[in-house]
Amino acid sequence: MNSRKMPGLKIGELEVKIPIIQGGMSVGISLSGLASAMANEGGIGVIGSAGIGMLEPDFYTNFREANIRALKKEIRKAKEMTDGIIGVNIMVALSDFDDLALVAVDEGADLIFLGAGLPLRNPKTLPLDRLRKFSTKVVPIISSVRAAKIIFRHWAKTYNHVPDAVVVEGPLAGGHLGFKKEQIGHPDYALEKILIEVISAVKLFEEQFNKHIPVIAAGGIFTGADIYKFMQLGAQGVQMATRFVATHECDASIKFKEIYVKCKKEDLVIINSPVGLPGRAIRNQFLEDVSNGNRKPFKCPWKCLKTCEFIEAPYCIALALTNAKNGKIEEGFAFAGSNAYRVDKIVSVKKLIETLLEEYERAVSE
Q1: Distance CA 334, CA 106 (A)
Q2: Which element (helix H / strand E) includes 78?
Q3: Contacts of 64 (CB under 8 A, 6+ apart)
Q4: φ, ψ of residue 46 in degrees (nearest 5)
Q5: pLDDT more than 90, % of the chain
Q6: Given a cut of 80, is residue 56 above it in pLDDT?
Q7: Which of 86, 112, 225, 258 could be a cystine partner for 363, CB 3.0 to 4.6 Å?
Q8: Rounded CA gap, 166 and 215, in Å?
Q9: Strand partners of residue 169
Q10: CA–CA separation, 340 and 222 (whole Å)
């Protein structure tokens, strides 16, 4: 008979009481407030680093320094508010990836989650001995077994070392997606299928390195029953983001959170992002204007994402997301996962975790 209690998660020597990672939501959605609240409940709280400096007054004149300063500030604030586990989400495609990775390690982040690109080069600022000294765990976020194999083989051959865990993100996630548009609704690319393939591939590296490497499921996970389902498939934890937006502790404005509470299923759309990837967002007038060919003028102080075609871009996605985060909804939009329409109220992180645990226990009993 299965234990009704949600099991813990072990990543290296990190002991996580509940196997839930609060997904890192960048451009100011998950900062020290949300991350520390999640860590205090026994999960992993994650600060999103992309565009974090846009919250600083001198971003447009000192963008690199503003990003470094803002990330330092948020990690320190989070660590003051919790003794729990804090991670930082860093997009590999960021122009200042090296800077932010170094800050995360030096400030004592417990984990670095690497998304939006394959981490195939050892950042000159982050040699592996430095990672080991600071005990920071490295966790790539991937969307295919092919990506997992490429990363693990490259790290094994080049560094005689492999990642400490891996997050498998399916096509029902919010924000930028690691899939082509035609793959998003195709059963061959469902999280359930990709997850099992990645678990099988990672087992070979667990044996080779005599190392426990948990595989974490992400993308469209909304309830405790969903957590149970994916853990039955072999995941050892889950990453959830959408459901944490509608919490009191989320660092976004109340207007941003209310977009989630009010949205309907038909409001969730796939957009073409200026950075060259499809993304899932909540439809609003801003996106309608863009889809009708209306350009939103902007000045690009620097090319923050390597893949951004900012000269032809109809709008600056970092600016649009920052505007929405700050409550200027008409000047931006909100990314969201496929289940955002199921959010019906704003609750505390504590209450959300209690609900997820109850839902999990019910699923075990059924």
Answers
A1: 31
A2: helix 63-81
A3: 53, 96, 99, 302
A4: -130, 130
A5: 61
A6: yes
A7: 225
A8: 5
A9: 218
A10: 9
| Cβ 21 vs Cβ 216: under 8 Å | yes
Query: Of 5, 34, 15, 54, whose CA–CA distance to 298 is shortest?
Result: 54
CA distances from 327 to 321, 331, 334 (A): 10, 9, 10
Inter-CA distances, 100 with 3, 67, 156, 294, Å: 40, 8, 24, 34
Residues 6+ apart with CB under 8 A from 345: 246, 261
284-324 pLDDT per residue, tens: 998 888 888 776 656 666 666 666 566 677 778 788 888 89
Tokens of 164: 């400490």
Q: Pseudo-torsion of CA 7, 242, 340, 284, nearest 10°?
A: -170
Cβ neighbors of 293 (< 8 A, separation 6 or more) are 314
DSSP-derived 3-state class of residue 94: strand
Q: Contact, 263 vs 340, CB < 8 A?
A: yes
- Which structure tokens are listed for 27? 């451009």
Number of H helices, E strands in the chain: 12, 13
Give pLDDT tens digits for 223-234: 999 999 999 999
Q: What pLDDT, on the 0 to 100 scale, is given for residue 94? A: 78
Is residue 320 within 8 A of residue 331, CB to CB? The reply is yes
Instruction: Give Cα 3 to chain centroid, integer Å.
Output: 29
Residue type, 242: T
Instruction: Give 116-156 pLDDT, tens digit per residue.
Output: 777 776 554 555 556 556 688 999 999 999 999 999 998 89
| Residue extents of the structural domains in the chain | 9-252+344-365, 255-331
Task: Give the C-alpha distances (Å, rounded to integers) separating 300 from 87, 304, 333.
Answer: 29, 9, 19
Task: Please work out, in degrees rounded to the nearest 5, the angle formed at the alpha carbon of residue 339 by the alpha carbons of 284 and 252.
Answer: 60
Q: Report the alpha-carbon distance of residue 85 to residue 106 in Å, rounded.
A: 15
Task: Say how far apart CA 300 and CA 145 lie, in whole Å.
Answer: 35
Alpha carbon distance 33, 163 (integer Å):
28
- Domain 9-252+344-365, CATH: 3.20.20.70
Give the whole-angstrom CA distance, residue 166 versus residue 164: 7
